[in-house]
Amino acid sequence: MRSALYAVWSFKLRTAFCLFSVSLGIASITVIVASVEGAYKKAYDFVEKFGPETVLVFGGSEEQRATGEKMKALTLSDIKAVGEAFPTAILVVPIAMKGSVGISYRDVKSKTLIIGSTEDYARSWAWPIEEGSDLSREDVAFGKNVCLIGNQVATTLFHDVSPIGKTIVINTKIPCKVTGVLVDRSASQMGVNLNDRIIIPIGVMMKKLMNDTKYISAIKIKYQHGRSLKHWMAELSLYLRNRHQLKEGQSDDFTIVSPEEIIKFLAALTGSLVVSLGISGIVSLVVSGFVLANLFLLSVKERTREIGIRRAVGAKKRDIFNQFIMESLLITSAGGGLGFIIGYGASKLLPLIADFPMYFSWKAFAIGFAMSVATGLVFGVAPARSAANLLPIEAIK
Amino acid sequence: MGDVAVEAIRGVSLTVNKGDFMAIMGTSGSGKTTLMNIIGCLDTPTSGTYILKGRDVSAMSDDELSVVRNETVGFVFQNFFLLHYATVIENVLLPTLYMDTPPHGLREKAMEILRTVGLEDRAHFKPRQLSGGQQQRAAIARALINDPDLIICDEPTGQLDTKTAAEIMNIFTALNKKGTTIILVTHDSNIAAYAGNTIHIKDGLIDGEFNQPPATVTIVA
């Protein structure tokens, strides 16, 4: 071990070369691991906001939703029925949506997403109020003209002025008094700015904006802690099919989305990125491995004399083999360490260019280190073996 | 040390006794290097036997030969063969890296040996900072660290001037006086003169008295 350290130090140039090539490979691996972890963390963060024990039910089957076809299937009476049928569903919140609706405050005009819901909307999304107060039960029950606004809306319409108590005009004819502002939610989530929205009581939404008193866009359900979400989803699905009188073989006229599916979706989204990064990382590591093996083979030739001397004073074949493997491991693990640092630096710079979540944990380090050690072992074997198999009499000529 | 018997090099036999100081002389290509390699357990004879301390070395595995080189034989080469990146004392301690159970106090022992070869103030120098004579002293110290029964010197003064060569040969003479068996390979008769007895190798055969078929070389040390 000590003599390996010595040799590594003595062949500085070669060592530096190997070290650098390994570190580049490890750097890219580190970036990959960090971005995978970052993506998953982002997905879990999203689920945290979505609510780990909640599901979202959309009207229309998955196929219909995919083709952009709007389907009216969920009704206000569904809400009531589901709430009564499932005591474990703590919150059953209706959601009616309309996008790109004109809004104005005095002479400032804008467009945003209007959501009709209940006093439970913010709670069901675990979305705190930053300023003012939530919609109240009475606001919803009596269909008062009040609203809860997203952070983006507050900034656009009011700049630095407090929006609480001010009246916004929606769709040029519906005046709504602002009761509260929702806290800022990381601006871009799957390309949607969550802060750009206004929440008004469901009754106001349906009567005055949608001219439809029956159908809603979605239902958000929050369950109690306890049994698995999958179980509840199956029950809910069965219940809704019965209620909508769907026959066997007929496809659902609704889609239930769970946090798990959102994670799957986000994972698939980052998957292609990870694959391309992964391939380049593996390639660079393999290339660095070959560089290492080559330089080591070269150095075995260069160090024939040394091998001969060691053999002459009693080194066995395996002593020589171990020495070269040890040197290889020393260089690659040092390269791994350096690579981790480079990777860390690179991933601090990467988010400046693109919106790219990065997250570092011991995992990134452990995987990088394990891969560098593996590189050292795999690519060190051939040179170490050729060193060990040198004939002593040839080596000391 | 018991009997060392080499039966090699076209079937010539030779015996070296314990405490002998024998010179093997011959021109290059005479076969003296092959003979030395076999005696030093760096090589094995294609046929014949070599008995070292009562053990048949010619039948040994590579690992066993390594142990013999480590424990029984000390080498001194013409070109010193020191590791240039290690210090003098680290070079001296090199054979101890390959001992099965290294004893305590090896550094002290190494310093003691360096003192006997007159290098105690150069222990932490790198070989390149030393003169040729000093490098050869370091190499001798390395050969002595494991208390070998046999020291094999291959042209140990080939790179040195006459005065330095004499100093080195005096070290060998002193070692031999203390009982170490020494085999000296050289083509220089002035150097061979330091040895107690000399054999001449020519075309793989020992010149003179042992040269009868079936020829054998036996060394008893």
Q: How would you portray this structure in words?
A:
The complex is a heterodimer of chains A (397) and B (221). In chain A, 57% of the residues lie in helices and 18% in strands. Chain A is built from 14 helices and twelve strands. Chain A has helices spanning 2-10, 12-50, 62-66, 76-85, 121-124, 137-141, 151-158, 202-210, 229-243, 259-302, 304-312, 317-353, 362-388, 392-395, and strands spanning 54-59, 89-105, 108-117, 129-132, 146-149, 167-170, 174-182, 188-189, 192-193, 197-201, 218-223, 254-257. In chain A, a hairpin with a 2-residue loop joins β2 and β3 (108-117). In chain A, α2 runs antiparallel to α13, α10 packs parallel to α13 and α12 (317-353) packs antiparallel against α13 (362-388). In chain A, 40% of the residues are buried. The mean pLDDT of chain A is 84. Chain B has a domain at 84-147. The N and C termini of chain B lie close together (6 Å). Residues 209-221 of chain B have low confidence and may be disordered. The A-B interface holds A 3, 6-7, 9-10, 305-306, 308-317, 319, 392-393, 396 and B 37, 40, 42-43, 62-63, 66-67, 69-71, 75, 77, 81-86, 90, 94-95, 97-99, 142, 146.
Write the layout of secondary structure elements.
The complex is a heterodimer of chains A (about 400) and B (about 220).
Chain A: H1 2-10, H2 12-50, E1 54-59, H3 62-66, H4 76-85, E2 89-105, E3 108-117, H5 121-124, E4 129-132, H6 137-141, E5 146-149, H7 151-158, E6 167-170, E7 174-182, E8 188-189, E9 192-193, E10 197-201, H8 202-210, E11 218-223, H9 229-243, E12 254-257, H10 259-302, H11 304-312, H12 317-353, H13 362-388, H14 392-395
Parallel strand pairs in A: 3-10, 5-7
Antiparallel strand pairs in A: 1-11, 1-12, 2-3, 2-6, 2-11, 4-7, 5-10, 6-7, 8-9
Helix pairs in contact in A: 1-12, 2-10, 2-12, 2-13, 10-13, 12-13
Chain B: E1 4-8, E2 12-16, E3 21-25, H1 32-39, E4 50-52, E5 55-56, H2 62-71, E6 73-76, H3 88-93, H4 106-116, H5 132-144, E7 150-154, H6 162-177, E8 181-186, H7 189-192, E9 197-202, E10 205-206
Parallel strand pairs in B: 3-8, 3-9, 6-7, 7-8
Antiparallel strand pairs in B: 1-2, 1-4, 4-5, 9-10
